[in-house]
Each structure stands twice: as C-alpha cells, then as structure tokens.
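User: Deoxyribose-phosphate aldolase, Sphingomonas naphthae:
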Amino acid sequence: MAAINPGVAFDAALVAATSFDDAAASATAAAIEAAPLPTGAARAARLRQAIGLIDLTTLQGDDTAARVRALCATALDPLGDGSLTTAAVCVYPAMVPYAVEALAGRLPVASVAAGFPAGLTPLATRIAEVADCVGVGAAEIDIVIRRSHALEGDWQALYDEVRAFRAAAGLAHLKAIIAVGELGDATTIARASLVCMMAGADVIKTSTGMEKVNATLPAGAIMLRGIADFEARTGIRVGFKPAGGIGTPDQALHWLALVESILGPDWIDPSLFRIGASRLLGAIRDELAG
Ligand SMILES: O=C[C@H](O)COP(=O)(O)O
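Assistant: Predicted structure for Deoxyribose-phosphate aldolase:
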C-alpha cells in the first residue's frame, strides 16, 4: 500500500465549497458502461489483473475459523497454479487471528471495524475496536463512518472521528467506508470523501456491502474526482476501494476502466486500488477456466 496519509487540517470553507453534480456523475458512469470492453487475450489479462486487486472478503454472521482458513488458502493461490494472489483478505475483527495465522505475512489481513456496518456503537468502543484489530495483526482497517454526521452536515464531527481512527490505527492502513448508498446525493458523497481524506484515510471505500445500494459507478466517479482533487491540492495519493455487489467480470472491468479514466494507469495497482468482493473471484475464475 502507498505511504500512510498523515492527513491535513480540517478546512470547513473547502468542505462548504465542495459540490458535485449528480447528472455529471451519471454521465461519466454511462460513458464507461457504453465503451467496449476488452475481448480475447486482452480481457483474460485484465481479469487476471483484477484478481490481484481483490480484497477477498467474508463478512457473514456464520463465519468460522475453518471458513476463514479456506478463504486465505484461496487468496494465496486463487487460480490454483501459483501464478498470482489476491491483494488481501478482509474479515470481521474476531476472525483476524485466524487469517493472520493462515496468511503468515504473505498477504495483509484487513479487518472491518468501528462498529461495522452501521458505525453506531459508542465512539470509545469504535476507537478501541480499531486498536484491538491492529493489536491482533490486522495491517489494514476498514472503518465505517457514522453516516449521521454527513447527513446532518456536521463535517467537523466526522473529521474528528476519522482522525481518532487514524490515530488508533497507527501504522496500519486506514480505509474509510462512506456508505454511498445512504448519503443521498453527489455533493454529500463528495464532501464525505474529502473529509475522510483530510482526516487521514489512506483509502476511501464506497460501501459495506450491507446497504440497500452499494458500489455504483456514479458514486465511484464522484469519489475518484475527489481523490484527484485532493492529490492536486496536497500531493497526497489516496487509494480507492469499491465494494459491495461487485460480482461479475464485466463489473470488475468497468471499475478498472473508471479508475483508469479518472486517475490514470498508476492507480491500477493494489497499493492504490482494491475491489472488495466475496463472489467476484469465483466468477472470474469460472470465466478464465472457460
Ligand atoms: O467489503 C466488502 C463487501 O462487504 C463485499 O460485498 P459483496 O459480498 O457484495 O461482494
């Protein structure tokens, strides 16, 4: 992953001046969906690239040590030929020790945290959870924001919370899930993205996978433009993770195309781009197996 984002001071005026047009976001997404996808060998190569970007995820109430160990074995050798790995494995906090043991440092373990998926447990509990996950070996922490702060326009409160998660995460990479499907409009998505980046998120992530609406290309377009603006303003490169409902090879290819079209080829790398998915790997594997 890229260097830790130290964050920048909260800038209320910049947040207030940040807006985004829903129609522009939809138009960007529509252009990506209308463009032809690669075919033949180029498609296969791109799908292999996508596998290397996956945070292979299980976030089920019935997760067990055995399921997590099996997931880790798949992440280390997803095509069964030793040719590549996924980017990371993503699990609930209680499953982190099993993943850490199974991966033995060969891949990072990402833990969801901060009261995932709603972010509505007491703040002290959410901060302690972040620290606990790091303490048992998670190298990446996928926190959720408390959506009410964004919906009520209390951007200082959102900044302060994410700043506290940044501090609790220490040297672990911090991914901030903004839950686009619950934020309402493009401007709120743009402002939430900006505030999380200001507070020190290394990656901004669309969704938990548990909202009614999860990763969408229009929301992605808004977040990616925010990442580009933030880099132009601060020199800090923040990564991007669409997650939730990405289950087909075509969807993965659209996400790669969107990221590349807005941020350029540098971002097609696990240090700056992840796809959070539980079913996508199986679908890509099926296609590649013909
Ligand atoms: O962070 C990852 C998501 O929870 C995965 O969502 P999914 O099960 O729809 O692929």
